Q: What sequence folds into this?
């Protein structure tokens, strides 16, 4: 019986062993995809030293320098290379070079935080250059006196532009160079508009506005009939009127003299691009690093729309391209063609153009001059490496490197150009995945590796960080898989236990019955 009892307990021993193994395994069970859905990005906005991201659930994250309270957590100062949560239920965000952010939440409300020296946060304040008191350190709802829902928000260096569903434009912030487009102000360095104020519709000739954008000190509004209106400072001739006088300003919106209907406008720092309905691309403003992508155009200031006429494959041969989208990053700019190819032009020394200009391929390339891409050059994509898998291996193979296999090119069809500050750029492919490249200061390219100084090739964008994986793992509910597995083990163990008990009782019953039969036999004898 003792021997038989040991045999019966074997299933229990197996179940106990499996359960012990499971419990001894580290809690991190790594995803089998390159970028887990829980870490995916669907919206980006940023500046040189800080960035914002929105994930698929509408949660807003911050990374980078918190010098003016851009984090929004009640503090000022410090740098954060791991994305930190700021707000939930956010649909869009805009930020300004001076260190502030405006978030449009899913309920249509606007929230602002960060530097408020020029009242750019729309909190009905005055000019205040005291760094100790002019920052708002937590998201605060903005004043907005309209019943029409906000549909878009843009930000310049120190002013904010808002568009509502009625096609009206509201602005606030620095106004000394006409940045707010509000008439009748006594313009000076300290002139501000303290709360969102509507630009008189007459300056848009009574037309409904369908798109807005902002350069450093200049605002843009595109009407539904394809007319572009501009106001503010004439940095590098960005007003587009043929004048290079940087002291010239438009106090209120002025119509751009242009013969074609405009489909889209994109502006950043002191450069602007437009896409016409016929698919032509024009640019003007700052051209210091050849960011307008026009052959033989070497002027630093381009004062009127100038067409970009030629596009080039990765090897430098000219190709036909039908352009469907544009994205102005300022010093590095991008266009997208109908086949899903992205072309970059401008500063490239730190991977901003999606290439490494120091590679031998580009030393005598017709589209590359030193650290600049001077003509629109097609970006190539490479096979991504799973960050979670590399973390699980606990190797240092990818420390300080972009997580792509540069030895294996892949075909990626880009569907849209999402956001850029020139230093770093984010795009979305036809499967809805985000890719990014450029200067990875504070890990803001979201390559998954915070120590990489730059990503010269596109990487799959992720809020994931190798060095913080265990913390992220718990926060992002990766316990689900191990919990299910452990639940299955418990069920199996319970079933084995029940089976063993049944077997044991059946055996004991048989023994008792055989014993009784034996005793009965002895009595009969």
A:
């Amino acid at each position: 019986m003792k021997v038989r009892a040991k045999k019966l307990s074997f299933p229990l021993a197996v179940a106990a062993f499996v359960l012990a193994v499971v419990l001894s395994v580290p809690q991190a069970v790594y995803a089998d995809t390159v970028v887990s859905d829980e870490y995916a990005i669907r919206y980006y906005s940023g500046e040189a030293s800080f960035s914002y991201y929105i994930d698929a659930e509408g949660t807003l994250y911050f990374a980078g320098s918190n010098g003016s309270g851009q984090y929004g957590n009640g503090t000022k100062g410090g740098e954060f290379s791991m994305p930190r949560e700021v707000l939930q239920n956010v649909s869009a965000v805009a930020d300004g070079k001076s260190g502030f952010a405006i978030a449009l939440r899913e309920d249509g409300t606007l929230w602002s935080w960060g530097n408020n020296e020029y009242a750019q946060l729309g909190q009905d304040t005055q000019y205040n250059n005291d760094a100790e008191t002019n920052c708002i350190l937590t998201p605060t709802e903005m004043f907005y006196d309209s019943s029409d829902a906000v549909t878009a928000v843009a930000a310049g260096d120190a002013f904010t532009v808002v568009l509502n569903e009625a096609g009206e434009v509201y602005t606030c912030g620095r106004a000394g160079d006409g940045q707010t487009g509000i008439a009748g102000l006594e313009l000076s360095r300290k002139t501000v508009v303290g709360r969102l104020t509507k630009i008189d519709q007459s300056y848009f000739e009574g037309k409904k506005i369908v798109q807005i954008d902002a350069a450093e000190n200049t605002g843009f509004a595109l009407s539904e009939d394809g007319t572009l209106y501009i106001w503010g400072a004439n940095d590098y001739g960005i007003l587009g009127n043929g004048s290079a006088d940087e002291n010239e300003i438009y106090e209120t919106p002025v119509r751009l003299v242009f013969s074609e209907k405009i489909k889209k406008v994109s502006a950043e720092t002191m450069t602007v691009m437009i896409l016409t309905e016929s698919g032509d691309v024009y640019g003007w403003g700052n051209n210091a690093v050849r960011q307008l992508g026009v052959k033989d155009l070497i002027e630093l200031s381009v004062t009127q729309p100038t067409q970009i006429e030629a596009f080039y494959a990765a090897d430098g041969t000219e190709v036909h391209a039908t352009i469907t989208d544009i994205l102005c990053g300022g010093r590095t700019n991008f266009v997208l063609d109908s086949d899903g190819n992205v072309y970059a032009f401008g500063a490239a020394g730190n991977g901003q153009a999606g290439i490494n200009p120091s590679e031998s391929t580009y030393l005598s390339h017709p589209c590359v001059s030193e650290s600049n891409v001077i003509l629109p050059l097609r970006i190539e994509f490479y096979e991504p490496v799973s960050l979670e898998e590399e973390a699980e291996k606990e190797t240092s193979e990818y420390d300080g490197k972009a997580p792509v296999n540069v030895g294996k090119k892949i075909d990626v069809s880009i569907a849209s150009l999402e956001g850029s500050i020139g230093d770093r750029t984010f795009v979305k492919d036809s499967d809805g995945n985000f890719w990014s490249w450029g200067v990875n200061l504070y890990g803001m390219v979201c390559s998954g590796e915070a120590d990489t100084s730059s990503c010269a090739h596109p990487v799959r964008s992720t809020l994931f960080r190798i060095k913080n994986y265990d913390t992220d793992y718990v926060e992002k509910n990766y316990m689900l898989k191990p919990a299910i597995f452990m639940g299955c083990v418990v069920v199996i163990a319970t079933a084995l236990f029940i089976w063993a008990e049944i077997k044991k009782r059946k055996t004991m019953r048989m023994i008792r019955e055989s014993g009784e039969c034996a005793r009965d036999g002895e009595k009969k004898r």
Summary: Residues 1-8, 18-32, 469-480 have pLDDT under 50 and may be disordered. The chain is about 15% helix and 40% strand.
